[in-house]
Amino acid sequence: MRRPVGSTTAICGTALPTGYPRRLGRPWLLQLLRQRSASPPLPVSKAVWHPLQPSSASGTGSTAAGGTSGPRATAVVPRLQRSAAAVPGSSLCVATSFPDGFPAAAHAALSLAVYVLHTNLGVGAWAGLAATLAIMACNIPLTRMQKRLQAKIMVAKDNRMKATTEVLRSMKILKLQAWDMKYLQKLETLRGEEYNWLWRSVRLSALTTFIFWGSPAFISSITFGSCILMGIPLTAGTVLSAVVTFRMLQDPIFTLPDLLSVFAQGKVSADRVAKYLEEEELNCDAVTQVPRNDTDYNVEIDHGIFSWELETTSPTLTDVELKVKRGMKVSICGMVGSGKSSLLSCILGEMPKLDGTVRVSGRKAYVPQTAWILSGNIRENILFGNTHDKENYEKIIQACALTKDLELFTNGDLTEIGERGINMSGGQKQRIQIARSVYEDADIYLFDDPFSAVDAHTGSQLFKDCVMGILKDKTVLYVTHQVEFLPAADLILVMQDGKIVQKGKFNELLQQNIGFEAIVGAHSQALESVINAESSSRIPSDNQKSADSEDEFDTENETDDQLQGITKQESAHDVLQDISDKGRITQEEEREKGGIGKKVYWAYLRAVHGGALVPIASNYWMAWASPPTTATTPTVGLGLLFSVYIALSMGSALCVLSRSLLVSLIGLLTSEKFFKNMLHCILRAPMSFFDSTPTGRILNRASNDQSVLDLEIANKLGWCVFSIIQILGTIGVMSQVAWPVFAIFVPVTVVYFLCQHYYIPTARELARLSQIQRAPILHHFAESLAGASSIRAYGQKDRFRKANLGLVDNHSRPWFHNISAMEWLSFRLNMLSTFVFAFSLTLLVSLPEGFINPSIAGLAVTYALNLNSQLASIIWNICNTENKMISVERIMQYSRIPSEAPLVRYAEHLPSVLRNISCTIPGRKKVGIVGRTGGGKSTFIQALFRIVEPRGGTIEIDNVDILKIGLHDLRGRLSIIPQDPTMFEGTVRGNLDPLNEYPDHRVWEILDKCQLGDIVWQNPKKLDSTVVENGENWSVGQRQLFCLGRVLLKRSNVLVLDEATASVDSSTDAIIQETFREEFGK
């Protein structure tokens, strides 16, 4: 492991023996006080030794525990890079769910305490030991119940976080389909399940607290009762000595509930991480690396059988035979779902191999079908960790058709790219991916249909200048649905149902008159059908008008003059060029400065406290009612003495139970209110918020900060008030017997709070920095998950692991300094309180005999001994509460996001993207929006759905200004097939009809029209067939067909297609076109 967890734990352990002898010496100190034989230097020397010890073992324990967060994160990340099937939502939950610390090993003092009791009470101490063992025996069932509940809580939180991640990733499609409120209800339902388990857990914790808070009273009652029954005399000195010992036992016993809770969390979290680490990994031997000089082939597959599911009778790919010589261009084509992308995956080693051999000679570069873009600038995405060779870099930029795009940005290739390339068009992202792969200078290039995301002109240029130009001597395997790219291939693979049914050159396959001819024929038929259907439209050719050179174009219709062309359109590049001057796409995370505002406390403070003075009353009663010596007549009878003590002690425990339940309930209810407010604001936020806010920031608040609200803040506030009440009671006792102490106690208290005032600003800012630095870890984690296959293909696992380590270190630094600052404060508080204690003890010992009742003086010393811990507890709780309230502050930041609604721009600080657009489209007309990649086509569509709001002018549908109607009313009456097909975890039916508005027979009818009916019918679950996160168990083309099914079900009068058939083959494209004409041409 990277951090010295073992040595830190050892240091923590060695610190404990130095503290407990001092505490165990307190009973004998009381005996000396009673006998008046101790000289002042003895207690003073003991007091001086105290602050020189570690201020709190818990602080060292926290350091040791906190240090494990780095190794845990760095253990999970390499595992993700080897994972055979990493699910982003689940993996993210495993990486973020882990306890932050563990209680100190104070429970070793129990055996020593029994020895002290035996010295003072004789055989009566064994009754106390039996009672202590009985209390400790309660650990077993309580721990088991806590573990079961903690497992349920984590599962519920997993489900909520997976759904939250999915919703954030697919927010645009949810808004386009007007499904955001439906998924808001889903998240609230999942949160409700988590809340129910949390409430059960806090009830169990309250019961545990009641048992262990009542345990000192129970143990002391058994001990004193046994002494009475056995005739062991109880004097004030004996009772007070025993009380001091029982108070010493309070620390380990009172922390047992926390120990049980943290142990349960740690056990469940460790089991989850262990289970994840033990899952099936990618078989590194699935692909055999062959030295270049040993073979003329870059890729060889013999009798290959592959499947995404290891235990299956229907492999994904069967009987794969393939040999690719060095420098060959291999094209892979076939119907949707035929196994084209899977073939590339088996070459990469991403797909489990059931049989056969795969041999690869040379380095690989991979361009996935769905573009994977890292946050950063364009250059960083292209270099991908390699050094910058300017000459080669410029040549690649030119070959990948990125020159014009970069010229339009003020910062060129240093222009920032938002999360997942949010401010780039689909074509731009694919070209950046291609440039990344070319710059890698690999031997084998695997392109998974990258040309479908760019326009025809750019696609042709890319194929000519890149594949057939700069890569002319490289081996390239490219999946494509575009027939025009097939003749240039040295080898064409035709796939069907997971098999290579044909292979050869273009003309050879045409002469075979089998499946390939059908693919080429389907392409021609699709073009003819479009031309025949739209024969009235006149489409200018490339030599008549260039989309790259014209800023203005007109579209005319021969049959009527109602369709007026777009008079002027400026490229999105023209306005995005000012990003660096007017603002960043991804904004720096907001961080408050200064103290936690009163509004934050006022928004949260709801707890009621009580029962803190009762333990003091019970101890005061025992000290007052017990005789000073065995020869003194008792003030009250033993029966009354014992009964009142038990009543007061049990009253204390009952008050604690009531307080724990009340505080926990109010804390959960308050947390729930904050969660709902934040969730509503986030889901109603405009898309500009999601464009400028990395997902990790939102997830950080929805997971870590929300957990702090759920379980910590209410308890911290409760303990803060409880500690204040206790110390006020202690001061009350001391004021009766040693009021001169206040001559020094009051000014020292002022010094206490001056120290706290000096400490708080630093600790608060360190806590804020630590919270902020957690979000980049989650963001990097999510990005690594999304691009795991690309990271492995490029051999960049070590670089991403080191980047993760750096982010973990950035988070750990302010956290560690925060812990160190607390130790700084604790040491000074200990020095001050020790000074007060030494002065008080010296004063009491120096007073003449008979001046103070020894029993009451002994009680005063008892509480003076604990004044240090009580004062430190107050400062600790105040400071800790202040730090924890930062989570409330951070959640409130995302509870004040302006709701979406009222020139089109992506954010207020960015310039307009579309300007001076004038267009009238009559009903039942089909209008094509064309232009170069990045020209503003998708932005035009987003303005129609009010994903981005127009700054000026009007957009009317059926003479209704869309700015004057509700967003759900607008979007619910429009339909769209987006450029990036999106599916949600759940079922087939849930993805087609999430609102449950249509009967099953209608859903089956739509599936048949989308060419998906047979595939779904073959699954035993039919409409309840599983869809995994992001629809990864369906091909991209099939996902596009599901998106088609949604609009067919909805049957809106306005249908928008954003490159709807880019990921499907020509035959399927023709079927979709025919379906559109039948369903929407009526």
UniProtKB/TrEMBL annotation:
One of its GO terms (cellular component) is membrane. It comes from the Eukaryota. It is found in: Membrane. Its main location: membrane. The keyword Ribonucleoprotein does not apply. Pfam families: ABC_membrane (PF00664), ABC_tran (PF00005). Keywords: ATP-binding, Membrane, Nucleotide-binding, Repeat, Translocase, Transmembrane, Transmembrane helix, Transport. Residues 55-73 have a biased composition (Low complexity). The keyword Kinase does not apply. SMART domains: AAA. GO terms for molecular function: ABC-type transporter activity; ATP binding; ATP hydrolysis activity. Residues 299-522 form the ABC transporter domain. This is ABC transporter C family member 9. It comes from Miscanthus lutarioriparius. The lineage of its organism: Eukaryota, Viridiplantae, Streptophyta, Embryophyta, Tracheophyta.
